[in-house]
Write a structure and sequence with these properties.
Structural class: alpha/beta
Number of strands: 8
Distance between the termini: 44 Å
Shape: globular
Strand order of the largest sheet: 1-4-3-2-5-6-8-7
Order of helices and strands: HHEHEHEHEHEHEHEHE
Helix content: 25-40%
Largest sheet: 8 strands, mixed
Strand content: 15-25%
């Protein structure tokens, strides 16, 4: 069993980009809470499904081959990346409906990473793996060009204070980096509950309009009628009158 509190390697602490989305609240669909609830922390088992940043090579090493590096059952399948997986609800609900796609979820909060990896293991999902790491170094140093079919970023930390805006994950620089990682016609799916952050996303998407075409967001399979992602987080705050916005950027 891995220790509960495990720091990132020194090379990551030295290159923190501070752009990882906020830890998700689980994003469980109503009606599925009991079936998908996590066991106590001391019973979480990430074996075979959860990987730590130590599993990544040095920052100046060659890009990894995710299919083999993370032990996917079918390593040659197309790969999609979720940045900020929270407790893994999107992956656990979406991945079984797409068995011909591999999904790698990146979560910076250790306790949520452990829950998500344990959940993937308990559901025996051969096409889901979780990585405890900061998303910035991963996309900048460890993934090869044209290695991703899609990227999902749902409800990232809005960092609402102006002095913290530089920490927002969705920015023109990161979008340009993702563009290089996407296969032709690859997609970046973005959703937020924060109006100012959506305005920010719109501004930064416009700054890379030469790289992406903006398309309407199509809700993933777990979403219900009128929902974007279909999470408890979304439903809770929609009932309170909070607005939700989303977009999809398609690689040119």
């Amino acid at each position: 069993m891995q220790p509960l509190h495990r720091p990132l390697p020194e090379r990551y602490r030295a290159q923190m980009f501070l752009h990882a989305p906020r830890p998700g609240p689980g994003r469980l669909l109503s009606g599925h809470n009991a079936a998908m609830s996590a066991p106590p922390a001391h019973r979480l088992d990430v074996t075979g499904y959860g990987f730590f940043a130590e599993a990544l090579p040095e920052l100046d090493a060659a890009p990894i081959q995710p299919g083999t590096h993370f032990g996917f059952a079918r390593p040659d399948l197309p790969l999609e990346l979720e940045i900020g997986s929270g407790k893994g609800a999107f992956l656990v609900q979406h991945a079984p409906l797409h068995p011909d796609t591999n999904f790698l979820g990146v979560e910076y909060a250790l306790k949520y990473f452990r829950v998500a990896a344990d959940r993937a293991r308990r559901h025996a999902l051969p096409n889901v793996r979780l990585l405890h790491a900061d998303a910035g170094p991963l996309i900048r140093h460890h993934l090869a060009s044209a290695s991703l079919r899609a990227v999902h970023v749902y409800f990232p930390d809005p960092w609402p204070k102006a002095r913290h805006h530089k920490r927002r994950f969705v920015n023109a620089d990161n979008l340009a980096t993702l563009h290089a990682l996407l296969a032709p016609a690859g997609r970046v799916h973005l959703a937020t509950d924060h109006d100012d952050y959506f305005d920010w996303m719109t501004e930064h998407a416009a700054a890379v309009a030469h790289l992406f075409d903006r398309h309407p967001f199509v809700p993933p399979d777990p979403a219900g009628q009128g929902e974007l992602v279909g999470s408890n987080f979304e439903r809770k705050y929609r009932d309170e009158g909070r607005t939700f916005n989303a977009m999809t950027l398609v690689r040119r």
